[in-house]
Design the sequence.
């Protein structure tokens, strides 16, 4: 079942049903392109198989907007996007990946197995979020799924490669995070003076290469 | 031009926030008390989008290098200009060389923790990605993308002596739009997606028990202390867009309210979201203070927005009358 829920009076959250996958995300991209033209919507922000609609102004009557949203989803066909492939060299473990041990403990896999599973896929950029230039990636092997941390870490450095639940990603700048840091890389993902300011956009692909593994 | 004299921390340039950049992962930032910022700009005759200095560590001192009209709103911090007391929520004019001092916020009048120093025309910093608000995580916007430091110099867009009428004041929203429940400040909340997935006891405690704002609270988020909130079954969510005011519950069971510098997306379960009209109340709530969450509905939430807007519209009308009369 699709779900539509409130984020206060600020936004609506639309969540697509089913397992997280690229075809669904392509429909989310199509839905975003449609709803961002609606006068009630100031920004349409894709997440992982979901879409946040930020109100230009909270409407008096929600039911009509929700009905239009459901209709638009039913009509949405996958919008493929051709993008670039960016390869990121990663140091796994040690000081670069202080929570790799937690992933080992949770999954019961060895460090080498985790690194092999993490570097195997090409990860499509599903959406940007979290902080400037940060990419949400699809395609992580479910065998290395590890719950977010019980208490968020107050500061994770830029370039940190991490796992949160069934997702993986790379921090674009230093900041707090609830994810498990397993490695690090160096890349400038965001520059506000560039147009567009973000290095990557939905439809691009990231590939992780194990440059070094500290066991 | 003003110069920051105090060895200050955490003061930043903020406007009403950055819109249109969420899809690059850029959060909104903006004033923690948007009502106070908007009122300060109205008192000065500034545009609604003008930027001001948000002060949250006191005392805070600035020297005016040239004559300039200014307004102070937010916390009542016993402000003085060259030692002469100033009324809170008032506009005034400084002469060249005068020193403005903001002291500790007074708890006796109304409890608040952030003050806004608005200058004539607004703080003259470049708009980045559509806003002058400081984006601390991205290190852009505001003044060089960072908090203000001793010795920083900031220009007003429209300085000068006698440029606009001053001496205009407002009765603060803490008096005009009060909200409390069982003796504590109240904040209205709409239940969010995962609300029904918490145990009945947790839901009852969420509304029924007071919440304390812990010292681990800042412009990014407020970590609250109170009863442990427990889901009926573990919840793992896919990352999704979030907004300031979202009340997330990490696995530890103590909620975090996302504030103005919050990231624009997250994955922790959401038990509720503070309505936009009440975000200023939380933005002003001091660390260590307690509050209650009050369940509300869509109609009440929009009525609260209308009340805030009516209060600002009335202030703008009075300010216009004053300008016509001057």
Sequence:
């Amino acid at each position: 079942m699709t779900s539509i829920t409130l984020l206060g009076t600020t936004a609506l959250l639309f969540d697509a049903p089913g397992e997280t996958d690229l075809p669904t995300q392509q429909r989310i991209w199509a839905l975003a392109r449609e709803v961002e033209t609606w006068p009630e919507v100031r920004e349409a922000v894709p997440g992982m198989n979901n879409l946040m609609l930020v109100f230009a102004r909270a409407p008096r009557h929600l039911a009509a907007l929700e009905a239009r949203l459901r209709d638009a989803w039913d009509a949405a066909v996958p919008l493929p996007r051709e993008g670039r492939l960016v390869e990121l060299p990663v140091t796994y473990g040690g000081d670069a990946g202080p929570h790799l041990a937690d992933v080992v403990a949770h999954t019961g896999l060895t460090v080498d197995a985790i690194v092999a599973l993490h570097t195997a896929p090409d990860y499509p950029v599903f959406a940007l979020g979290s902080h400037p230039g940060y990419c949400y990636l699809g395609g992580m092997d479910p065998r290395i799924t590890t719950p977010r941390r019980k208490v968020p870490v107050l500061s994770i450095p830029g370039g940190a490669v991490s796992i949160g639940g069934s997702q993986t990603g790379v921090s674009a700048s230093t900041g707090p995070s609830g994810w498990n840091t397993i490695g690090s890389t160096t890349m400038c993902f965001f520059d506000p003076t560039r147009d567009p300011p973000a290095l990557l956009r939905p439809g691009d692909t990231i590939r992780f290469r194990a440059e070094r593994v500290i066991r | 031009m003003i110069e920051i004299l105090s060895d200050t921390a955490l003061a930043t340039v903020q406007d009403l926030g950055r819109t249109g950049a969420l899809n690059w992962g850029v959060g909104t930032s903006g004033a923690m008390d948007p009502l106070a910022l908007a009122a300060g700009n109205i008192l000065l005759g500034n545009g609604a989008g003008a930027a001001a200095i948000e002060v949250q560590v006191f005392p805070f001192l600035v020297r005016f290098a040239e004559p300039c009209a200014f307004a102070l709103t937010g916390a009542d911090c016993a402000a003085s200009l060259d030692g002469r007391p100033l009324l809170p929520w008032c506009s005034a004019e400084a002469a060249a060389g005068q020193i403005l001092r903001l002291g500790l916020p007074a708890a006796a009048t109304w409890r608040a923790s952030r003050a806004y120093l608005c200058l004539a025309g607004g703080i003259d910093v470049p708009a980045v990605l559509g806003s002058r608000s400081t984006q601390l995580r991205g290190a852009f916007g505001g003044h060089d993308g960072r908090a203000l430091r001793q010795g920083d110099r900031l220009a007003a867009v429209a300085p000068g002596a006698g440029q606009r009428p001053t001496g205009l004041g407002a009765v603060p929203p803490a008096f005009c739009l009060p909200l409390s429940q069982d003796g504590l400040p109240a904040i209205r909340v709409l239940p969010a997606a995962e609300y029904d997935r918490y145990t009945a006891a947790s839901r009852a405690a969420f509304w029924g028990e007071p919440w304390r704002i812990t010292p681990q609270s800042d412009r990014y988020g407020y970590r609250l202390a109170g009863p442990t909130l427990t889901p009926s079954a573990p919840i793992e969510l896919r990352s999704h867009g979030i907004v300031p005011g979202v009340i997330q519950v990490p696995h530890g069971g103590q909620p975090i309210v996302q504030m103005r510098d919050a990231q624009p997306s997250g994955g922790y379960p959401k038990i509720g979201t503070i309505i936009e009209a009440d975000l200023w109340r939380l933005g002003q709530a001091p660390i260590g203070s307690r509050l209650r969450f009050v369940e509300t509905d869509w109609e009440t939430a929009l009525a609260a927005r209308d009340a805030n807007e009516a209060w600002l519209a009335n202030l703008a009308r009075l300010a216009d009358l004053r300008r016509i009369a001057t």
In short: The first strand of chain A starts at residue 3 and ends at 7. Residues 36 and 177 of chain A are 29 Å apart (CA to CA). The mean pLDDT of chain A is 95.
